[in-house]
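Chapter review: from sequence to fold.
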Amino acid sequence: MNNRENKITLQNTFTEYSDIVSVNQMIEMLNIGRNAAYKLLNNKEIHSIKIGENGRTHHIPKIEIIEYLNRNIPYRNIS
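The token string follows.
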């Protein structure tokens, strides 16, 4: 199995979540704390769209979380 086959894809991951998720959902998906979640967003490691009064509410495309995981999780060929 090559590295491409091991990648996390939109089709096989987080199917229970909609295409746009909230910060709370991102916290669940990544199993991280609130401070870590906002650090990822503020450092633009995971991109979001800010909507709402004063632009304070993050709306996160699910694909951004999947791409973050693909960039940061080392894959190993387990045979």
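Two observations follow directly from the output. The longest strand covers residues 57-61. Helices lie at 3-6, 23-30, 34-42, 62-72.
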